[in-house]
Amino acid sequence: MPEGRGKPPRVGDCSDLICPPVRFRFLDEYSFISAQHLALVNFSINKACKTPVGTFGGMHIIMCGDLCQHKPVKGRPLYASHPRRMDAHETSGLNLLTEFTNVVFLQQQQRIRAVADQLFANTRLFIRPEQATLEEVTAVCDALDARAIADLNVLASRTPRVVVMRNEVRQRYNIALGCMHCRHIGARPIAWRSKDEFVRSHSSSKQAGLQGYLPQCVVDAVSLMLPEHTQKVAGIQSYIPGCLYSFIDNQAPGIGFVNNASCVGRGILMSPGEVDDGADPIWWLKQPPLAVFVQPQDGKFSAEFTRIMRAEFPALRTHWVPVCTRYTEGFTVQLPEPIPHRGRVLAAVNVKRFGVFLSDGYAVTDFYVQGMSFKQECWLAHLCPPPDACGLKRAAVFVVLSRWGSWDDVQLIVPLWPRGDAAARSKVIQAYHKAA
User: Fold this and answer.
1) Neighbouring C-beta atoms of residue 62, cutoff 10 Å
2) Which of 18, 98, 109, 172 is the Cys-Cys partner for 48 at CB 3.0 to 4.6 Å?
3) Which residues contact 200 (CB under 8 A, 6 or more apart)?
């Protein structure tokens, strides 16, 4: 929901999602919720229930979560100190918080299978009030480093996924795990380059009159950008039968097409004229495909949606849905150095990208897995401290480690430090000690 200022924000009609018989509504992941967010949830529910003035449409609201996990991406958490001067939504959200009448504290960790398990003790190090000692942190780091796998390829049949604590390494593992899946099933990947074009600008802009495809130096600069800076559509995309994808927008929430939801690649519809000469290990398409067909990771859509799709598209396989290519919104590209182009000098350009609105789904961040249980699925973690000054985040370490049910299930995709490098080991331990 949008962070509104002043007047109430525009909220879509969600009455089809909240029907009159509903009496209880759960708000999960309480640590993510800011006061503004809580106010907007209340506004949306009141609108859907046609109760302009009230508290959550007269329904019972149960909030649950773990305050040691991640804070809101925007805004202050509900438990934080708030300034005296706040906007209307933040004030409203804090007032709503006083309407809650009961607080329940769980006395036992529900995900970890046994309190005596080593995972419980190692995870608790990052949430207990008292400062962890250097000796305790050293023991945990040595134990974690010992959980690094020796050979990733032995896990190929289990379709492994990896959780990382920063986006910079995410693309690397998406590519590595996608290639491993390709080798395992003996398939030849199909790949294509997204199309980047100038965004049409108003006549007063420095970019006025620029349109169409970009000069090669700009194409090179855009291709090096992380998907996080290009509306999440990568410069090079691929398809392999059975590959994992994630949706990158909220195009169809009613059927589960929401940002970061997982799906499986099932088919591809190419542009006319694509011919495979078989000369390259990768089949490079001349143009982005018309669509990639996907299926929910759990395998099925609702019976009602399946009925509609069968009526509208009788030739489409059951539980398959096309994700079509389209343009992103514009984004700014800072060029490595100014370039002359059509009688002017450009230091930055506004670009839009034409591609498939899917991202590789093998590697995800710690924000993605909050609330998940890994259970018996094959999950690995990349827990190496980042090289920048931000350091490890206490909540990130806690969220990742607490997804497993036992210490025996914990697997790292790489060691915490190079083997035999005492200086690197000391640096990692110091970073973890600071986080704990």
Assistant:
1) 14
2) 18
3) 211
